[in-house]
Amino acid sequence: MNKTHQHALSRWLKQQSVTARRWILFSRLLGIISGLLIIAQAWLLASLLNHMIMEKIPREALLLPFALLILVFVLRAWVTWLREKVGFQAGMLIRQALRARVLDRLHLAGPAWIQGKPAGSWATLVLEQIEDMHDFYARYLPQMTLAATVPVMIVIAIFPINWAAALILLVTAPLIPLFMAMVGMGAADANRRNFDALSRLSGHFLDRLRGIDTLRIFHRGAAETANIEHASQDFRQRTMEVLRLAFLSSAVLEFFASLSIALVAVYFGFSYLGELNFGHFSAGVTLFAGFLALILAPEFFQPLRELGVYYHAKAQAIGAADSLQRFLNAPLQAPERGTLSLNKEDKLAVTARDLIILSPEGIPLAGPLTFQLPAGQRIALVGHSGAGKSSLLRLLSGFLPYEGSLLINGIELRELAPESLQASLSWLGQNPRLPADTLQSNILLGASASSLQLAEVIRQAHLDEVVNQLPEGLDTAIGEHASRLSVGQAQRVALARALISPCALLLLDEPAASLDAHSERQVMQTLEQASRRQTTLMVTHQLDILKEWDAIWVMESGKLVQQGDYTTLSQTPGTFANLLGHRRREI
């Protein structure tokens, strides 16, 4: 990663701090107050020691300075605690805002974009990479201000007492940020490589974990174990590279800070021995000046030390921001959103003219398409895999952009409010997703229904025998990824969910795929009845069940090549007849 790109990412990170600007300013103000309290504490402590040692003032006469010193100690501890709370609040607000932007972007991109990357990499982006930006906002940004202001305040406090000690601190201070920058130049790049390795490892591991049955059946377990071990080793090496840079940066800081403090101590030591006689303003080098300078010298470098510690947080944030900014700024041709609404009671009619379906990146997926889907009709969409059938269903769901014209009940799709469109749809796919905890929650999934309606839908979906077998009936927890249900049972739950609310357009994407013969027969029997209640468009490879459907559309290479009923298409040479013949040979 070159310097120009690092500077651009650093500017982008600072721009995000607008969300919590007040909290960050408050944290900086508390840090400055803490710096003033440090000077007051050192001044009181040096004064007390000078009074007791040089002026022989009894301790009883110094009760007020002792009380003030204790008060400053308490105030400093309270300000430090409050500053930590304020910094955490700033980091939390910015992380929440960034996470909301990412989730909004994912929602805008839709399923087609999300499915292009492994789920583990999305989890790393949304959770870990945004989480790793916390210290940059909570600590590093406020500390940048303190690293400049607190040392200046300490020099101002020391200079009237002894200009030589102040000069030593001023001369040695720039060495720390100089060498810190030199050591930290590769830290951001190392963190970026580390995040990339973690993203690959997360996606790789999760995908293999989901397909572990297939891997074992085809004797790929040992090979994939070796692949995961290789990815883990790569991540370990990159993590150690980041840690080496962090430790090296800290060592450089401690070396130069210790060297500067030692120079101050040597100066005062030789001054008290009478070997040096400069740096004072005609009053000589007093014990008070020595105590004050030596007490404040470590505090002079403490903000720079802390900045060095948090510099690793900056490098970590820049590494995370690289992939995050790339995702947020990637060209995305999202579906246009309108404000018009549909009447939920009307069946939907769809008319397309010169329609081109686009991916979220703006790449044509299918088209040009010209068709009419009359209200109340049952249309089956068939074709080879990759012909564009699922893309058409995603477009009708409002998840993909398009060019040309697509009218829904005479209204252009891009002019419809997405909420209105999706409230008129019901959908059943080939891979059911059951995100809720219980069986009943997954059937309703935000819909409201009476107990009679729920019981009727369960009967129609042939779920009653499943409910009776479960220990807690509809309140049974189905486990992560519906682990307590078979594929057929999960598909019937998804079918019940699709039927629970009346809809104007029913979209079916291979609803009987991956089902055994018994489950397939039950699902298709229910869909045969349900498909007559509204406009229905079904993607399927099962051609023998389409004899009574109103029309069949055949897609090939992203275009509609045939339209007609089962009898006409089966007797006409073309893609459908070829598919039918191939299907019969398989049987």
Looking at this protein, list some descriptive labels.
587 residues, 4-stranded antiparallel sheet, Rossmann fold, 3 domains, alpha/beta, ABC transporter transmembrane region fold, 10% strand
Architecture overview:
This protein has helices at residues 3-16, 21-53, 63-109, 111-114, 119-131, 134-158, 163-172, 175-184, 187-210, 212-217, 221-272, 287-329, 389-396, 418-423, 439-444, 451-460, 464-469, 487-499, 517-530, 566-570, 575-586, and strands at residues 350-358, 364-373, 378-383, 402-408, 411-412, 425-428, 505-509, 535-539, 551-556, 559-564. It has 21 helices and ten strands. The model has no long low-confidence stretch (mean pLDDT 79). The chain is of the alpha/beta class. It has a six-stranded mixed beta sheet, sandwiched between helices. Strands 2-1-4-5 form a four-stranded antiparallel beta sheet, covered by helices on one side. Strand 1 (350-358) and strand 2 (364-373) form a beta hairpin.
Chain-averaged pLDDT: 79
Cα Rg: 35 Å
| Helix-residue proportion | 55-70%
The strand order across the widest sheet is: 6-7-8-3-9-10
What is the multimeric organization of the chains shown? Answer: single chain
Topology summary:
Layout: H1 3-16, H2 21-53, H3 63-109, H4 111-114, H5 119-131, H6 134-158, H7 163-172, H8 175-184, H9 187-210, H10 212-217, H11 221-272, H12 287-329, E1 350-358, E2 364-373, E3 378-383, H13 389-396, E4 402-408, E5 411-412, H14 418-423, E6 425-428, H15 439-444, H16 451-460, H17 464-469, H18 487-499, E7 505-509, H19 517-530, E8 535-539, E9 551-556, E10 559-564, H20 566-570, H21 575-586
Parallel strand pairs: 3-8, 3-9, 6-7, 7-8
Antiparallel strand pairs: 1-2, 1-4, 4-5, 9-10
